[in-house]
Structures
1.
Amino acid sequence: MDVELPELPFSLRTYGPDGHWSYEDGVLTGWAGARQDRFVTPTGEALEPASDAPRLLGAPEGDFQLIARVTVGFNSSFDAGVLYVHVGERAWAKLCLEYSPDVPTVCTVVTRGHSDDANSFTVEGSSVWLRVSRTGRAFAFHASRDGRRWVFVRLFTLGDEKETGAALVGFMTQAPLGEGCVVTYDHLEFRDAWPDDLRDGS
């Protein structure tokens, strides 16, 4: 299913399980079902190939920033709302507001064959602003408690410039251990430029 959001200059398509995606009055809503996640553990065998989570993704061109305030209806450990980058089946990344495991936390996962997992900072309440940016072959993750001052979280690549230039970018929901959760994304914004400085809060 293709989805058009007025804030974004590219169309979105659904991937994975049904996320019951909807959009109304500037708010995008998605649902994660029971035990839905994307994570390839580095400590053992990969998850089953069928293991997946609802995603709504599109293909922006050139340099960009994708911004959203993410609000998660936390029910269980590791429930999360995600900004997601996909380059290949084993090359993707997540910027999450996650219950990790019992405190809302900004977390990141970068998967290159297997996934890593890193926590950044905790959040009071159930909302935070997230931002993913791209220039050339590089991606950057930022988060903000107020949507004005941004905290640099991560800088990484997922392949060469040709591969990352064709990346799919968008939204994901997950509930790895629980029975499901709802996530909303509002204050959606798209900028066709890389941030001037990754570390100055802008």
2.
Amino acid sequence: MKIFDFAAHHKALKQNLNYAVHPQILQHAEWHPGSSGHIFTDKDSDEPFVGITVMHIIDFRLQCTPTGSFLETKYGAIEKAKYQFIGGRTHGKDGFDEDFIRVHALFNNIQNAVAVSHNKKDMLLDNQSIRFARNIFEKREHPVPDSPTASRRTVYLEDLENPHSAPNCGEEEVKMDEETANWPVDEQYSNEVASIKAFYKAVPLRVYDKNDRFIEPQNVNKALCNSVAEIHFMLHHTYLPKNSPPQDSFRANIKQILILQQGKSTVNIYSSDPHAGPARTATHHTPPLVEAPPAKRVHMEEVTVPGVKGKGKEQESD
């Protein structure tokens, strides 16, 4: 199996202006007002700046299943669910370990350039981790039926009053997109997802394995776990003055993920039947048995005893 050349990849990325440790990023990009806050924007193109970084995706709070961060409706609506994961140091990959420190410092400087409050939340969790996220569902421009069948088409009062302005008057527009219609959620969440399909569409993460093959939504979480990946992202800021206390919310929005090295699967040796005996590992921590010191050698040294023939005296030898 071919081993990924991290040294060569690091050398190539350092020449890319979008690589997150490039020294000229702050000269080429700045915060611009957007529809719901601020977007970190390329000064030359006025398009959102797409940064690139390489990190280790840890398994803690890894929520990239088709329902992502959604748990129950009492904790938040499913249309607000997000894919999210935490990136950290790459642990020994040429150059990228040191780059993590620089990326973290860059993100901190970018936050400080626009923050209103002292409470900067959601992106930099601590000095060792960065949170990346993205909404799973995007709101449709026009509602569509919750079924591809035209007979079950949703009819709105404004469409009846203005039939020529109805957005779903064409046969192709009547059908729901295949991605959302067949979104692979667990059965326990199927009713919640079905209730929003007419108004929101499911958008899969752009995740590719080391052979550039697309990873299906139901397999993404497993594929990302403990992997080393190249992450493409955009930065977004929202000021929340009504929070108590007021806070600035930042997000590194996921655009694309390229898996460079698959995460190693871990085996829980302590999951076996406890009645079967103790679990054994190559690095068992039971102290080794203490060997008894070698017995002292004993030999006979012949001595002459007056009046006794052939007798000797035992001597101990170390």
3.
Amino acid sequence: MHPWIHQTLGELVAADERRARLFDQLGLDYCCGGSRTLEEACRARGLDPATVAAVLEALGTTEAVSEPVIDWRTQPLSNLIDHIVATHHAYLRRELPRLSALLKRVVAVHGDRNPWLREGQEVFERLKSALEAHMHCEEEMIFSRIRALEQGSTEAGLELEPLLQQAEQEHDAAGEALHRLKELSNNYQPPEGACHSFRALLAGLRALASDMHRHVHRENNILFPRARRLLAEAAA
């Protein structure tokens, strides 16, 4: 029995983020569902855990590395926070308005023939507003406290745990919204005769979901647990 089948999805991706792509392809949720073991997640999807573990192991020697693999479990938390803001938050601030405008155009032209677009627009706009507020809270309240906590501040941990719990709940809500968009769009499949804008919208929604998986994984499975360990050490 492969030892990896008893590790959680979050632990496996934290050790090597190249594994995230395979989990995405297999429909294994390693961000909000990152606390499940590989065996549990595979059984739920009707997959053989040993086979998936073997494929994961092969990735380390067969998959090309386009950029250095950073082990965020050992990097300073301030570095991880900088990466999240510069990579994922910057992406959302750029893509959410673009997708919102694109969705508006597509609904105006194709909404009558594709009724799901109108519900999709409502789901997306709620998601957009929620993520914008979420990022502001993280940057102004959560990340600043974690940075100070890492520097040894004894007061930085005040009210941090409730904020982390709130952020995790918001991650779950965002995951549900993204899942609904995937359902409505039939897994982002363009209908027959879809124009360039329609195809660009679906590609953008797929990319948004993929980036959010990495984003939430880095917070739920690495940043927040490490911050909680600092809180425990400070309390001790």
